[in-house]
Amino acid sequence: MFGLKHMYRERERLYQRALRLEDQAGDQRIAMKSQVLSTLSSAQGLLVSFGLGMTTQCDAATKARNSLLKSAQSELIGIISQYFASKMQPQSPANDSTDPSKGDQ
């Protein structure tokens, strides 16, 4: 009545298809995992892994070196500016009465 038998058969067919697709997807996931593991453990995979690790370490070393150079540069500029600031300040005049080169006049 009203095509209910047809709808039930269609629903059952779709359900069986979904189960088959789930099983197929599970098999493909297992195959992909084993393929990835075999690729990673191969010589080519180890070389790629080493290369990626090396670039990461080089990037980290470069960033650390640049950071140290910037901080050293700012420290050096600060020291130099303090030195020149002390040299450029006007000297306080010495007390003339205590200067032995000037005698009593």
What topology does this entry show?
Elements: H1 4-41, H2 43-88
Helix pairs in contact: 1-2
Features:
mainly alpha, 105 residues, 2 domains
Your description of this structure?
The chain contains 2 helices and no strands. By secondary structure, the protein is an all-alpha fold. It has 2 domains: 1-41; 46-84. Helix 1 (4-41) crosses helix 2 (43-88).
The low-confidence parts are none
Secondary-structure element string? HH
Whole-number average pLDDT?
82
Q: Tally the helices: what do you get? A: 2
Measure the end-to-end span: 138 Å
Structural class: mainly alpha
Helix content: over 70%
- Give the domain tally: 2
Radius of gyration: 41 Å
Compute the number of strand runs.
0
What amount of the residues lies in strands?
under 5%
What is the approximate shape? elongated
The largest pleated sheet is described as: none
Task: Write a short abstract of this structure.
The chain has 105 residues and is an all-alpha fold.
